[in-house]
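Appendix C. Worked example: beta-mannosidase
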Amino acid sequence: MRAPTTLTSVDLSGLWRAQLADEDLRRVFHLNEFDDTGWPAIDIPGHWRTTAEFASTDGPLLYRHRFEHPAPAPESRAWIELDGVFAQGDVWLDGSYIGDTDGYFFTHSFEITDQLHEHTAHVLAVEVSCPPVNDPGEKRSLTGAFQDGDHLPRSWNPAGIWQPVRIVETGPVAIRHGRVICADANEERGALAMRLVVDTVEARTVTLHTLVAGIEHEHAVSLATGENQIEWSVNVPLVERWWPHALGTQALHDVRVEVRLDNGEMSDHRRWRTGFRTVELRNWRASVNGELLFLKGVALSPLRTDLAHVPREEIVSTLRAIRDAGLDLVRVHAHITRPDFYDIADELGLLVWQDLPLVHRYSRGVRTQAARQAREAVDLLGHHPSVFLWCAHDEPYLAEEPRDAAVSPGFLRQQLPTWNRTVLDRSLKRVLQRNDQSRPVIAHSGVAPHLPQLDGTDAHLWFGWYHGQAADLARFARRIPRHVRFVSAFGAQAAPDTRPFVADEFWPNLDWAYLAQHHGLDVDTMVRVVPPDSYASYDAWRDATQVHQAEVVARTIETLRRLKYKPTGGFCAYRWQDVTPQIGFGLLDATGGAKLAWHAFVAACRPVIVVADLLPPLLKPGDEIVLEVHVVSDERSGRPAGVVRARIDTPLGPRRWEWTGDIAADDCTRIGQIEWIVPSTVGPVTLELELAVDDLLVTNRYRSVIGLRHHRPA
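Step 2, the predicted output written as structure tokens:
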């Protein structure tokens, strides 16, 4: 057999030229003879807003790049590949239109063999558009969190050629699409489901050569002229499996597929890195390789406004911090991020909840394009063992709908069918299921149980923020247990320690409208929850917002962990970090600084915690208080003879309790009960819990206050 042919690739990244589009330029900018010497230079890859000349424009923008490339060798074909264009593009080469792009996160490629044979000097021209969202209920661009939601400023536009551009050469048979999915994995074998779409200039027979984990697989395929879809499977005996970091090691294997001609030469190839594992989600209880796992997770915003310039080490640092915080799951919220993010998640053993880039409502015209992008998402990410679940659409309702209840928008408002939820989302779920049968798929996120089956999805519950108190979640769970099977959004906004965007000389008379428009603050909710008028200074109010956020996050997690598997399968807090300077939901601020909630979050996510029922916020002398005490463990083995101590401190002194018992593995264990009568005094109350078992010491603390009982007039 002859040695495989070496295929070439030429990177066209670097300095291009660009200009704001107008009707006159559109008619001529793509022509070779057009003079662009007066146009500003722009870096590719990149977002045009990061270039001074285009820092405030919404475009469209016209790009041009001159390059030289020789004619392809005989029997070879040439393609131009654009790895990422935000969000739509029209592409010309040497004055000829070669195609359009739609979808920011995947590669678009066009054959340019004939053009390269005509001469060696070439001009690539691209018109890029990413229109701002003017009507939130009728969006047409599928850009998700980059242009809707509270992750980024509404004024930001992510537009641009944000990923590399290259020219590649192949043989006469080229791979147009490729997909690798782990179809099965057990102790005896692993199985990969393989799919290629190949294009050939004439009918012929080729050999597909697959190499994975030292196993070679070959089979001959007869091709018709044009595009051909090929599917096959590869079985690997006794393959080492991939596990999330809480359950085991992260074995990864290279997969290489070559298309070989009848003379033995390689015509094209693809390479992936994958892991063998199975995932299931039954009644929102997750298992990996058959092992049950309670999912502790967090939602992740776009890593930066300028996603093109996020260095690999920043992604590694972020995901390692998430793993080291004791989490199993990261939700890539309402967007698809950089490709290297998923490689790093594979290596670190984190599971990924992957949203499509759809959030809130869309125009009816997006259905076909959304279905295509769902298929492309599977091609792009299907081989990653970390990708655990597909979600088609986050909160398929208007963000401006009233959020005056813990389930927002309210339960009753979600009972009527809508085109987005009923038609679009179900259609996308079917597309994802057809293209990837190895993973759970949900049609939408944050949808309440609704008629006719009264079966919702995951829940977005905002106790302590949009409605009530964090303590109300426990009563809600008893009343509607189906709605706490998996809670994927909860939290509260808090001000960061750094405040370069706040001028507080006239506190409390801040420019609240400015903070809402540019720094994410939900003014109405914050004024109700942490009223600025109640604090003497901005700093005191800021500290109070952080204390409140920490309390909401910690108590919500404790409540959900106490419901472990009965019925709760996990949670996902909203969110890890604010991307830009905000009074936002992030546990970390835009500089990476930790708010108080981050420390509370990490403590609540420890493998073993000791918890009690929440004290009422106001105690009165003579109240009879009964509190259940539990230990929740995520450890895979139990611990015998644990000792739990409780102490309540009041101005009259302490009261103590102590229990001894075994701590069950991967379960919630009831330890004992505190029965206490509130003494006749006023002042602060502290409940301290301590668990000591083996070399493990775990503590927790709850606070309340004793106030005077008010007497009604006679």
